[in-house]
Amino acid sequence: MQKIKILLLEDDPNLGMVLQDHLVMNKYVVTLVVNGLDGLEEFSRNSFDLCLVDIMMPKMDGFTFVENIRKTNSEVPIIFLTAKSLKEDKIKGFQIGCDDYITKPFSIEELLLRISALLKRAFKSSVEQTNEFEIGKYLFDYKRQYLQLKKEKQKLTARENELLYILVKNRGMVVERETALKEIWRDDSFFAGRSMDVFISKLRKY
After folding, report:
1. What is the pLDDT of residues 67-105, one digit of tens each?
2. Which CATH class is domain 132-205?
């Protein structure tokens, strides 16, 4: 599974390291920078799935950083981490393109939940705009119902196709058995569960 990459902009070295450690413990890949200018350079060189941005930073503040990012990238989710709690600051943050705003001090648990919700929403949006997905070395074509490795194509049954699609839609997330059963089988009974296990085994074999 490809890990989620986060760009963290925080000029407080202690808080930055604490946040980085907790995010890494939760399986994220984190790049920590201490000012907006370095953050902008880092963003231009690498691809990130989400940005966590402090507002009050040296060289370039968080507002200016986000304004620059949004000139070329309107999709990447951005959360402001800030001690500024005035309504005007929050309004400005959303106006220039942030997706969420969390005021210091905050709990790690709350931050993780906000990150998870944003990533899920962003990935669902991108999935809805395409029918082809890369899964490691494989290409999954949802519309044509096949899984391809190089020139070899494996035709999928309707349920194999739907099951793989629900997993792709929730990439990086845990899919509860009951969720998949109700969405595809319309039934979460024991027998439906056993049937799904067979299809999971087939997908793993492919």
Report:
1. 999 888 888 899 998 877 677 888 888 888 888 888 888
2. mainly alpha
Helix or strand holding residue 82 (H, E): strand 78-82
CATH classification (class only), 5-128: alpha beta
Domain extent listing, the chain: 5-128, 132-205
Task: Residue count of the chain, please give it.
Answer: 206
**What is the pLDDT confidence band of residue 1, given thresholds at 50, 70 and 90?**
low
Helices (H), the chain: 13-25, 36-45, 62-72, 87-95, 108-128, 158-169, 177-180, 190-205
- For the stretch 193-206, pLDDT in tens is 888 899 999 999 88
**170 residue type, one letter:** N
pTM above 0.90, yes or no: no
180 Cβ contact list (under 8 Å, min separation 6): 163, 166, 196
Q: Do the Cβ atoms of 54 and 77 come closer than 8 Å?
A: no
Number of Cβ within a 10 Å radius of residue 7: 24
Angle, helices 62-72/87-95, rounded to nearest 10 degrees: 20
